[in-house]
Amino acid sequence: MGSSARNQGVDSGAGAGVGEESWTARGGIQLMLRSVQAADQTGLRAFIDGLSRESRYFRFLTGGRISDETIEGFVSHRPGRDAAVVVVTRDDDGAESIVANAEYVVNADDIAELAVVVADDWQGQGLGRRLIRRLQQMARASQLRGMRGDVLSENRRMLAIMRDCGFSTRRNPDDSYLHEVNLSLQNEHAQRQAGDHWLPRDWFAAN
Ligand SMILES: CC(C)(COP(=O)(O)OP(=O)(O)OC[C@H]1O[C@@H](n2cnc3c(N)ncnc32)[C@H](O)[C@@H]1OP(=O)(O)O)[C@@H](O)C(=O)NCCC(=O)NCCS
Fold this sequence. Notes:
Blueprint: E1 21-24, E2 30-35, H1 41-49, H2 53-60, H3 68-74, E3 83-90, E4 96-106, E5 111-118, H4 127-141, E6 146-152, H5 156-164, E7 168-171, E8 178-184, H6 185-198
Parallel strand pairs: 5-6
Antiparallel strand pairs: 1-2, 2-3, 3-4, 4-5, 6-8, 7-8
Helix pairs in contact: 1-3
Bound molecules: coenzyme A.
The site of coenzyme A (COA) has 21 residues, from α2, β5, α4 and α5.
């Protein structure tokens, strides 16, 4: 999502709290999703530098080297407000390698601006979808008003995933190279409440 979900934070650290999650990927490799830590800066630099030109372009709207300030931004989110997560593998000695990164930065309208990128060798194995779902859960738990992002119009995969995850997508009226993706969380909240209201009062009563 282009470069829009850039750091605006002041504190180093993990951002909004994240429950760790581990699972086994294709080939039996163990993966773990966890929040970003300040110590991840070096790992994130290596991860970003290892991306193909195309992936870097889709994520940052440039195929060139990503600045140190941008990398610092990945570990400098406002705790309890923004969110930043990584997926890592661990070798036999416990050393971690980052294979995916996702984040959102909450803007002044209480909208989470999200961005995600998966290492080229790991794309197409469900990581992107899992990360977006996780960011959605976190934004809901934080009672944010919605989520948004800018996606290059040629990024069919990302647009397909966003639609699957309930986002509306539309061409940016000011920039035909970009699509804007949006998700209102307020409506969901209202719908959930309406649904709850519909249930009879004794619905959860013991039989
Ligand atoms: C976009 C990205 C984050 C998706 O993550 P991922 O782990 O590769 O995606 P997933 O495996 O979770 O999902 C891929 C889905 O896209 C679909 N897909 C793949 N290529 C597609 C295409 N050309 N058109 C439409 N859908 C496509 C697949 O069918 C798959 O759906 P399925 O799970 O139902 O089979 C990842 O590819 C990436 O990092 N790309 C480069 C950076 C980037 O584009 N970031 C987003 C910035 S806006």
